[in-house]
Amino acid sequence: MRYLITGGAGFIGSHLAERLLDRGDHVVLLDNLSTGSVENIRHLKSNERMSYHFDDIENRQLVAELVDDADIVVHLAAAVGVKLIVESPVRTIETNVNGTQMILEAAYKKRKLVLTASTSEVYGKNTNVPFHEDADLVLGATTKGRWSYAASKALDEFLALSYWKEKHLPVIVVRLFNTVGPRQTGRYGMVLPNFVKSALDQAPIQVYGNGKQSRCFCDVRDTVESLVRLMDTDKSIGEVVNVGNTEEVSIEELAKLVKQRTGSSSAIEFIPYDKAYEPGFEDMMRRVPCVDKLHSLTGFRPQTPLNEIIDRVSTFFREKNPRPASAKMAAINAG
Questions:
Q1: Per the domain annotation, does 78 fall within a domain?
Q2: What φ, ψ does residue 57 adopt, rounded to 5°?
Q3: Could you say which of 4, 286, 300, 303 has the lowest number of CB atoms within 10 Å?
Q4: Which residues contact 51 (CB under 8 A, 6 or more apart)?
Q5: What is the pLDDT along the chain (335 residues), one digit of tens a residue?
Q6: How many structural domains are present in the chain?
Q7: Is residue 32 included in any domain, yes or no?
């Protein structure tokens, strides 16, 4: 099979490309490197079954050609990260909505299967956890820029499902819950890599808000396995599917766990939301998926333990930025 992955040089895209290449598929990557990185795919560039294009998803002619050549399109390209969303709401909305429209339009002409990535953010302020795919979406006021990402991804879902219902384009919508692992950057506010990097640097671990908000973290290997299995079964076409782990942890406990697993002496600091993001920032207190639908469609549930995930992320950063022996000894002595 020949796959086109938009956002293919990103964190999830690079891992998915790796998985597909390992099983013998052909992969074409499209990425403008706004949040992705050449480093993520450097180890794949020598594979004769992979090609890549560093260009924008709004290059209509290129997208049309790449979709035409593909058997399946995996649409991961998006503006991501709470920090980026708050600071660049126009970019967030335009990138997410226009990019998805472009992909669906191109795929419709040749009836290509499209898997499009959405987010757990669309559940908004719904408090009825665990979240089921048919639950109400409860978003905040439009004056709160934080909700622009959720709204744009919800519109992406409506677009994809409308193409399926009205135009019979085969689509799969996946709602991703905090995918984490090696190659993820904390540049745009992703909590786990930021915590791990701070811990390894013996710098303060900054927890936004009171730390009582909870999340579930899914190893990228489990996310990729879920996506592959969903694309491999016709039963998932036309469906919206949660993809995530169900092991829930508060952000304060996550900070303590990262500190423990890394052997760090870092202090844990609490930063008010207003200072971290913007005045009046609103957050979701709990974000827990129900993955029964994923299991019924694929026979798979993400189950990598959080301790193992933290260790994998720590190993990645240690190998990426090895510390001098003197610094390691100083850290040990400080501990």
A1: yes
A2: -70, -15
A3: 303
A4: 27, 28, 29
A5: 999 999 999 999 999 999 999 999 999 999 999 889 999 999 999 999 999 999 999 899 999 999 999 999 999 998 766 666 667 778 778 888 999 999 999 999 999 999 999 999 999 999 999 999 999 999 999 888 888 889 999 999 999 999 999 999 999 999 999 999 999 987 766 899 999 999 999 999 999 999 999 999 999 999 999 999 999 999 999 999 999 999 999 999 999 999 999 999 999 999 998 887 767 778 889 999 999 999 999 999 999 999 999 999 999 999 988 765 434 434 444 44
A6: 1
A7: yes
Q: Is the peptide bond before 302 cis (omega within 30 degrees of 0)?
A: no
Active site residues: 149
Residue pointed to by tokens 């048919």:
134
**Interatomic CA distance for residues 115 and 122, integer angstroms:** 17
Q: C-alpha distances in angstroms, 308 versus 217, 220, 254?
A: 11, 12, 13
Q: What CATH number did the domain enclosing 10 receive?
A: 3.40.50.720
- Of 44, 82, 6, 309, the C-alpha closest to 182 is 309
310 in any annotated domain: no
For residue 118, what is the enclosing H or E element?
Answer: strand 113-119
Does any domain span residue 212?
no
